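User: Run a structure prediction on this.
Assistant: Running it now.
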Amino acid sequence: MGIQGMTFLIVGLTFLLYMGIAIWARAGSTKEFYVAGGGVHPVMNGMATAADWMSAASFISMAGLISFMGYDGSVYLLGWTGGYVLLALCLAPYLRKFGKFTVPDFIGDRYYSQTARTVAVICALFVSFTYIAGQMRGVGVVFSRFLEVDITMGVIIGIAIVFFYSVLGGMKGITYTQVAQYCVMIFAYLVPAIFISIIMTGHVFPQLGFGATMTDGSGTFLLDKLDGLSTELGFTEYTDGSKSTIDVFFITAALMVGTAGLPHVIVRFFTVPKVRDARKSAGWALLFIALVYTTAPAISAFSRVNMIETINGQDQSGTPYAEAPSWIKNWEQTGLIGWEDKNGDGKMFYSGDERNEMKVDRDIMVLANPEIADLPIWVIALVAAGGVAAALSTSAGLLLVISTSVSHDLLKRNLMPHISDKQELLYARIAAATALCIAGYLGVNPPGFVAQVVAFAFGLAASSFFPAIILGIFHKRMSSKPAVLGMISGIVFTATYIIYFKFVNPAANKPENWFFGISPEGIGTLGMIVNFLVAFVTYKIMGEAPQEIQDMVESIRYPKGAGEAHDH
């Protein structure tokens, strides 16, 4: 059986598993659709949260970014990991104690304002659509290679799968599907990493192989070899960063606080029975996430060395295209790898200067890694299944946020308060289906690499939700209008900056033109600061929240129990 046949088999089996779980866990009420009935075990919820959290950006694109960017790519690793710790320690227990279904629900009730709820819905939709574009792109990349279809068809297949189990099962179906997806994902991520670590360094654990000597008898450390190859070929030194300190700080901070404001991750803590269980599931999720995040730098280094030596040959003189390994020919069909024979010698050459003849999309590095290292075909197929699981799991969580924002927060709690449970569930499914179509378009026409698109979503979340949630929990006197003005000013500032440099005038997207040297990926931190400043300044002018709101905030600050998630 070839790679395509094995991929069809393994990916097909995982799809059947996900669909079977969706049918078994079909949501019968709004509570099951929104928060899985509120009775998920902490370990199971930890796995589901990890799967929700580890999107296509984490599985497919993060290691690719680090592989190409070296030290500079570590901002994604630091920001996303640190952000989850911030979310688990500072926000999750308090939001669970509050006992609402969604983040706009929390903001609407905490700031006693339908305007605040509506602004939060708009922010949630903005963040979620930006984020889901990256996931759909990831699905398209996986399918385009392993099912030998174009990216557009790959996205359409992904839409069909997500539609089935998220629209049918809601949070209940998504939760138990994500447990299965985490198991597929972690196995698919670790198996090739362990194989390659043993081959290249002799270490079973990739985390140790990352800092070990090569098994080629040279006695050279892996990172020293990578530094030597990088400088020889015109790239910057792999272990030395080229980004400015301020930009590194702002990107890392935007990713951290953006994580703590992501609505699809926060809602996971409403699915457990008690506040104590929210803390436990956060701890389990951190452990499950760490397995991937501590392995990513090793995969990045292994794949970078193997790719350079495969394309350029062991002596770095170039490999004849006629003798190119099968993985290059396979990925060429997707358009994500390309070769242009500039000097007419018939050899491929990859470098960071004018000698370069190769176009290599960084989003393929994790998926192509087993092929580059010549691992067994079942490992290659397993990685394809893992990549699909990563993209689909997060897509489902985001779709739920979009559908609940529309059906629950916008319609039930605002525009149409008298609709029945059954009608609300119908509107939620219609909203999810509509969102899928829009997400599919964004997946076919993405505004950047998967991880970059996701970084923009984190910046938008950092500048809108994070200050409102933090002030809502820890500043009991903060009143409604200042919080709303802060959210609006933060997300408008951040979105304007990103849209200008990425869409309106991409030619100006250079460090010398950035505000204080802050890139679009990091501007969310400044947007967060704008949000806080506007909220505090207007708070001094407009006065405090009513006493009953202050008393309510005081009660959730000291979580001694938990109520059911409720509507009123």
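Residues 561-568 have pLDDT under 50 and may be disordered.
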